Amino acid sequence: MAIQKQQEKTAVTEYLRFLIPSLIGIILFIVPFQYKDSFTIPVAILAGIVQDLLGGSIPYIMTALITITGIFSILTVFFKPSFITKSPFLSGLFYVSPIWVIARILGMIFSIMTLYKVGPSAIWSDTTGGTLLFDLIPVLFSVFLFAGLFLPLLLDFGLLELFGALLTKVMRPLFRLPGRSSVDAIASWLGDGTVGVLLTNKQYEDGYYTKREAAIIGTTFSVVSITFTVVILAQMRLEHMFVPFYFTILFAGLVAAIIMPRIPPLSRKSDTYYEGTTQKADEAIPANVGRLQWGVEQAVIQARKSGDFSKVLKGGVQNVLDMWLGVVPVVMAIGTIALIIAEFTPFFTYLGAPFVPILSLLQVPEAAAAAQTMVIGFADMFLPSIIGADIENDLTRFVIAGVSITQLIYMSEVGGLLLGSKLPVSFLDLVFIFLLRTLITLPIIVGMAYLFF
Distance between CA atoms of 429 and 444, rounded to whole angstroms? Predict the structure, then answer.
């Protein structure tokens, strides 16, 4: 009897180990609350409090961190110090390809020039580097802080395993993908697009996905996270629209995910496996076990693997450092260059010109101003919201923000990661996929916007 009670107690404890962190994660990242006359998620509320507390010191903090990233990346690539190369985390953070080292060096130079207003004003003006360092990066700093710390609650305690089991019957008919890919998709939606790319790349190398399946998952489900969505909405002054906005990008993203695998270039990828690897059996649900029961069992197993609180906290801190040191310098570099091009040349105006009649046909206000934001997102996802933030019309800003998120392929992060991985996509593939996703999701987002405004 005592042994049975102990087993029941252990079972209850393991279920709670899955349920409690997962519910806290859902509340922090998904459930909106009313705060200061608007609805927003708790992570955004906490980020706003930190921004208010630190105020003008954040650009100095981030310039220091960007500088550290640049210096340590140079040291690692050229001198390979043992304390970095022997640490998987530090090595992954600082040992990057030459193109990303250059990007980090440029980010360091641009942030220092902007902070102290030295050198050509085209680099540090309020409409170029100043916009990034003093407006956008403080938002990234505070949002990344809490998102990084709390993401393990969503990713490491079984929530993905539960939803993966529940969605296995959906993935093949809708998206022409194996059921296990639902975990990759959910990891991207709830966590971060880079997480999805890394998961997909590992599954592809291990023989679980064909080239076609890997290309579809990497370019279709490596979606912008809830975290980045909050940042975009804050930049666009649309935080109060979080629920209808997120529903809109979910719907537009779903339509694009159904269409894209059925048209070139993704439909033309071969159904062969990575470098001769043989197909590995997909995880099947036992015949006598329901999907919910199986999902809960797998979730409990994952929660058991997550380790103690100190391990989770360590993973959260590493997430924060990875985003602060890995993402922000690249955003500063590519963002500044793209804003200089956008501000002082007609380059993006010319590229966006074909979208003027499309936006006009869709009756989007300020179509000419919005048109250039339709293509600039290929460089970096934040740029459309930076350029479009000054547009007066709320509906137009809503459309720009929605399109920038559903385009998915931005070179400052996911695009670069895709090209650097083993996934079978080329630069030209990414250009076509970016344009096709824009054309597919734009009318959907405009239609949804007219329902809300």
Answer: 23
